[in-house]
Amino acid sequence: MASTKKSSPRVALVTGGNRGIGFEVCKALAAKGLDVILAARNRELGEQAAKALGAGFLWLDVADRTAIDAANDIGPVDVLVNNAGVYPPGKVLDATAEAWRDAFETNFFGALSLCRAFVPSMVKRGYGRVVNVSSGDGSFGEGLTGPAPYSLSKTVLNALTLKLASEVRGDVKINAACPGWVRTRMGGEAAELSPEEGADTIVWLATLPASGPNGGFFRRRKKIPW
Ligand code: NAP
User: Fold this and answer.
1) How remote is the CA of residue 13 from the centroid of ligand 1, in Å?
2) Distance from the CA of 170 to the center of ligand 1, in angstroms?
3) Per-residue pLDDT, 7
4) Of 207, 205, 199, 210, whose CA–CA distance to 222 is shortest?
């Protein structure tokens, strides 16, 4: 007799979900039936955004190691979207120490710590999707454009994506996405894409079938160079 037991929805954790691309990713994943946990460092804005989507809320500053340790309490996560990001200015020789620290703490160490917190249980359970929201600015192939702290923090995020993808087993997929140039606080009003369009590749990677890619870097659902 065929089982009529309904499987429970996948759980997705999205960082920086209170605005911009992260909010649109939460919205699209919720519309696809995932159980979304919208994480944000601003409690008021985060709770408001989560409420608007009927999503769960997690207070999470990804640059705060204690907060990441505490995030483990939410239990296993099937889909992790490392979206939270900052865009500190400067060239290699003139960017401030704070700009370098800020870029790497948020854009790289935040994502690394969350991978270390949630990927082991994905591997154990045999299913997981991680999307590291990166940027063409971090691509050697596209010329390492953009401010130095931002660009290099995304380069290392790309390297993390490739390295971790080589370590996982089972139906666990670790990919990076460049959303394109998107109209958000970071992208500015002149950007070509809406936040919803920017979220598309991320949502696609977050919900890949078992036959989907592992260890790639994508924009508009097409592979781009590291
Ligand atoms: P955004 O509107 O500025 O949103 C950034 C989000 O990250 C906000 O929710 C922000 O929270 C959050 N955040 C920053 N530092 C954080 C921290 N330490 N802990 C938790 N959350 C933190 O920018 P966006 O355009 O949506 O960017 C989303 C991602 O796309 C970023 O990784 C960015 O690098 C990438 N990206 C964007 C573009 C573009 O054109 N927009 C292009 C390429 C890549 P607060 O609201 O509290 O500040």
Assistant:
1) 15
2) 30
3) 79
4) 205
Pocket test for ligand 1, best of 184, 189, 197 (most atoms within 8 A of CB): 184
Which residue is associated with the tokens 């997690």? 58
How far is it, in rounded angstroms, from Cα 144 to Cα 29?
Answer: 31
Domains assigned to the chain: 11-223 (3.40.50.720)
Could you give the residue ranges of the DSSP H alpha helices within the chain? 20-31, 43-53, 65-71, 97-103, 111-125, 148-167, 195-206
Nearest CA, atom 44, ligand 1: 135
Q: Which atom belonging to ligand 1 lies closest to the Cα atom of 195?
A: 26
Cβ-contact 44, 56 below 8 angstroms: no
pLDDT digits (tens, 9 = 90+) for 67-92: 998 898 999 999 999 999 999 999 99
Catalytic residue numbers, as ranges: 150
Burial 53-91, CB ≥16 within 10 A → b, else e: bebebbebbbbbeebbeebeebeebbbbbbbbbbbbebe
Report the predicted TM-score, pTM, of the whole model to 2 decimal places: 0.97
The rounded Å distance from CA 20 to ligand 1 centre is 7
